[in-house]
């Protein structure tokens, strides 16, 4: 795809990274050189490489280089820390880890060193974008394909081959790995472009972390490149950073999560600030349900059209359309990309619910996965016998075919679009010397949609720890910052169901009734 676009319009700008601009020909050449250098290091077709890079042009050069040789990027986020990176490397049998030197004040080189030491010799390379410290500089990897033993790069992967491993939101433990193929992913990208009106004149602002499924393909950076448009890498999504880029680069389309959309609408109430958004035509909001009242602010305040997006890295993506009635755009999360996306809404016994009723969303289709990476037991639970994927979402379907998301069936917290598996955080909390038992639940939050609340039952005679000390303990165990509990409450016991299980539903009700004097 990239080679075809570079041949069609080599001198058109493909990527903007600060003051650095790459044409399609330059991006393609850099990716080819990266592919040659990775091959020379011993990265071969089918190998996995964990990529943890921020919103930089180097992210695209690396992933297209890996695509070219048929090696698989494993997409990590800049927020991930030792626990997650170690799991990704071990579970995927990664041969290399690619990180920035520093990002938002955090030194990823030290992190990568700890991960490499823990994983062992199978992780052969740590490559660093920027100052490498004790590792290898990513800038030293590229080489001329003519210098390879064969004098050129080998043939690339087949369309149906795996392209990369994306991360699931995860309902238990660290995220599972999702294998996406070249053809299924480009099918989704092409469909997203058609719905969102992305053309060679479109300018897409990559405001969310580039490795996220949403800014990668819905329609995302790949959508813009597929259309021959321009990608603008945004180093931080806050209004002070993003708005000047929108004005300077003539950004026409971007995607954000609901908390960010709220921050943007608040900042744009200032007329001078709002004027910077004049080029913006479409704001896509996804990653979590966008409240109706917040959705109603977008067009009047930001001066652009709203498109709601509801999708998952496993496949199915839904959009509201430009021709949809305004009430549908404001109150639903869209309908599927493809006429071949199959949707079932069922009760707990997998029986179809009546039209308009809420139930569990099952889906099967041309770009939805058939199974997670090396997870047979989980696959047996996550897919029906006839191949429908159990999304874990509770939805109802309108007569128009649009879906309205009502919540999550899985025990998972959606904190501003970042998914938190309660079981993973509970496991860390149980390691605290004062904690006898721990339960983590989602509680409503006007800004984030949901926040995390940790309920703790202490060991007998244990000194009650302060909430700040508990949060520090979780942070020091190596979890990402967004997984640290927002609220910590100490209780005598947990409510139970009739069969003796902890009732998280009752814990959520208790949180609504509790004051926050102990936070």
From TrEMBL:
| Annotated InterPro entries | AMP-bd_C, AMP-bd_C_sf, AMP-binding_CS, AMP-dep_synth/lig_dom, ATP-dep_AMP-bd_enzyme
What's in the keyword line of the UniProt record?
Answer: ATP-binding, Ligase, Nucleotide-binding
Record domain AMP-binding enzyme C-terminal: where = 424-501
Q: Which GO terms describe its molecular function?
A: acid-thiol ligase activity; ATP binding
- For the keyword Disulfide bond, the answer is no
Q: Does the keyword ATP-binding apply?
A: yes
Region (Disordered) residue ranges read 141-163
Q: Which SUPFAM superfamilies does this chain map to?
A: Acetyl-CoA synthetase-like
Family statement drawn from the similarity comment of this UniProt entry: Belongs to the ATP-dependent AMP-binding enzyme family.
Recorded hits in PANTHER family, A to Z, give: LONG-CHAIN-FATTY-ACID--COA LIGASE, NONRIBOSOMAL PEPTIDE SYNTHASE PES1 (EUROFUNG)-RELATED
**Protein name per the record:** AMP-binding protein
Q: Tell me which species this is from.
A: Streptomyces alkaliphilus
Its lineage opens with: Bacteria, Bacillati, Actinomycetota, Actinomycetes, Kitasatosporales
């Amino acid at each position: 795809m990239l080679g075809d676009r570079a041949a069609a319009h080599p001198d058109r700008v493909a990527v903007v990274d600060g003051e650095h601009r790459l044409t399609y020909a330059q991006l393609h050449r850099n990716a080819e050189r990266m592919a040659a250098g990775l091959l020379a290091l011993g990265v071969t077709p089918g190998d996995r490489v964990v990529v943890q890079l921020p919103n930089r042009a180097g992210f695209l050069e690396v992933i297209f280089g890996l695509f070219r040789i048929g090696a698989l990027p494993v997409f990590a986020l800049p927020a991930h820390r030792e626990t997650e990176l170690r799991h990704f490397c071990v579970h995927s049998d990664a041969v290399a880890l690619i990180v920035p030197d520093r990002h938002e004040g955090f030194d990823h080189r030290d992190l990568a060193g700890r991960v490499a030491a823990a994983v062992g010799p199978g992780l052969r390379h740590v490559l660093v974008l920027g100052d490498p410290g004790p590792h290898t500089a990513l800038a030293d990897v590229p080489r001329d394909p003519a210098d390879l033993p064969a004098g050129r790069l080998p043939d690339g992967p087949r369309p149906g081959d795996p392209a990369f491993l994306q991360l699931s939101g995860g309902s238990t433990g660290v995220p599972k790995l999702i294998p996406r193929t070249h053809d299924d992913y480009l099918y989704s990208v092409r469909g997203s472009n058609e719905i969102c009106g992305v053309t060679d004149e479109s300018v897409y602002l990559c405001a969310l972390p580039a490795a996220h499924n949403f800014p990668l393909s819905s329609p995302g950076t790949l959508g813009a490149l597929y259309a021959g448009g321009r990608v603008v890498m945004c180093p931080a999504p806050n209004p002070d950073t993003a708005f000047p880029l929108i004005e300077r680069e003539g950004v026409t389309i971007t995607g954000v999560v609901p908390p960010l959309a709220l921050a943007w609408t608040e900042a744009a109430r200032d007329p001078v600030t709002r004027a910077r958004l004049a080029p913006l035509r479409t704001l896509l909001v996804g990653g979590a349900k966008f409240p109706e009242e917040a959705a109603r602010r977008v067009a009047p305040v930001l001066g652009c059209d709203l498109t709601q997006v509801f999708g998952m890295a496993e496949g199915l993506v839904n959009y509201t359309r430009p021709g949809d009635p305004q009430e549908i755009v404001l109150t639903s999360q869209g309908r599927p990309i493809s006429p071949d996306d199959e949707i079932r809404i069922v009760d707990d016994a997998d029986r179809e619910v009546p039209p308009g009723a809420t139930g569990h969303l099952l889906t099967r289709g041309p770009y939805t996965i058939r199974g997670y990476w090396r997870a047979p037991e989980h696959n047996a639970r996550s897919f029906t016998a006839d191949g429908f994927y159990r999304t874990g979402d509770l939805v109802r379907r309108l007569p128009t075919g649009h879906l309205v998301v009502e919540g999550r069936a899985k025990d998972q917290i959606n904190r501003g679009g970042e998914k938190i598996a309660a079981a993973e955080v509970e496991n860390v909390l149980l390691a605290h010397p004062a904690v006898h038992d721990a339960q983590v639940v989602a509680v409503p939050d006007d800004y984030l949609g949901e926040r995390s609340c940790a309920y703790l039952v202490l060991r007998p005679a244990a000194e009650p720890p302060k909430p700040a000390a508990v949060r520090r303990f979780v942070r020091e165990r190596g979890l990402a910052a967004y997984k640290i509990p927002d609220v910590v409450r100490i209780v005598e016991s947990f409510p139970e169901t009739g069969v003796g299980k902890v009732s998280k539903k009752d814990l959520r009700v208790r949180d609504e009734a509790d004051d926050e004097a102990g936070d």
